[in-house]
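Quick one:
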Amino acid sequence: MTNIVDCKDNRVRGLPSIAELVPRPIGVALTIVVAAYLLLAVMMANVVPTGLTGLQNAPDEAAHVNYVKVLATGHLPTLQDEKTDPLKQSYEWHQPPLYYLLCVPVAKAGVRAMRYVSIVVGLFAIVLTFLLSRIAFPNRPWLALLAAGVEAMLPAHIAISSSVNNDILLEVCFTGVLTVVVIIWQLGATPKRAVLLGICCGAALLTKATALVLLPVLATAAVLALQVGIPKVTVIRTALISAISAVAICGWWYVHNMVQYHELLPLKEFAQSFSGTAMASQVISGQLHIPLPSPGWPGYYMLVTTMTFKSFWAVYGSRELARYGVPAYLPSQVYVIALLVTVCCASGFITQHFRRNELFDPKQLRIVWLFLLVISLVAISFAAFVSHYFQTQGRYLYPALGPLSILMAQGWLQLFGSRREKAAAIGLIAFLGLMAILFFTAVQAASV
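Output:
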């Protein structure tokens, strides 16, 4: 296989050509994967009912749509918009505005037109994951295809990508930040690449508050860059240019918050809006009559883990269930298979760890560390959230789906060996495709 990146020096190099990045067999397979994603996402966007906030496969959509409608009138939503909303479906006012700005041009065309914006953004997430894997691990094109396939065919991710919400744009920003970092490590640092890194980070901070976890990630990336031989002056220059670019993109939002709410993030006002949400303490005390696998916090975390795992793979709802925010799942056998796939990926990744010096060069090893850090910080953020609120939604882990898909693909392919990479990659993508079709069928039946 062609090595598209020479990792042995720190000379600045341009990006590989399309032909180098996407060899013909990979290009054909990737085209099929992208086409399948677009078909399923468009069908999902047209089948799922609109106007609901409690639908698990289009979570809080009506509130996100209201944000776009307010923004289309020429001003940013505030807490006052929620107070004056008779249906109280304007509670996303605290969100940064970037995703909603993308939807404003099609706002008059209705909710489904806004959903198509999400589908296009989701397409960028798939392409960026493929690019990230190709640049990071240039000798493994089937790894990149499988990582993109996991992202494209994951049923619940298709649902999120075909609804109006800012999660999908945040995922693109996270993957974009990592892609630029890896390009700088592998191909060299330039002022343009530093500006691009700052734009990706600033865009993330202008999309959702979860993006704050990128700050320790970028600080760690700077330290690791020194370890792989990038000169200190280059690291400092890149960091300064990136920071200035990021502030230029998103700084005004935090000034707005200070003026409007006297906080960088309107956390006090957000807590008021979220006060009606089920609390972890209420579940543990039995006030909500939700059965736990075992008493107390251990049982609560077991329940949250189980429900989050299922919703990460596939979760949906109906009009009736949406009234109460209750999730619906596919048959339990599907999640048993998903669990087996997860265990296989984890086992292969652990096996890979013991061969890390053989399989990775120093830069690639640190790329894996950076991926693990992103996944860990997103998971810790989610764990802190569910320790207060009863929110068992796997989509909260999706900001890290790009690196997670790559590591899952690494673990899966490790189990089958290099000679069977092609068959193993196509096999897992095919399974996810069948799962996505089953998911769409269930969503369609529930949407009648």
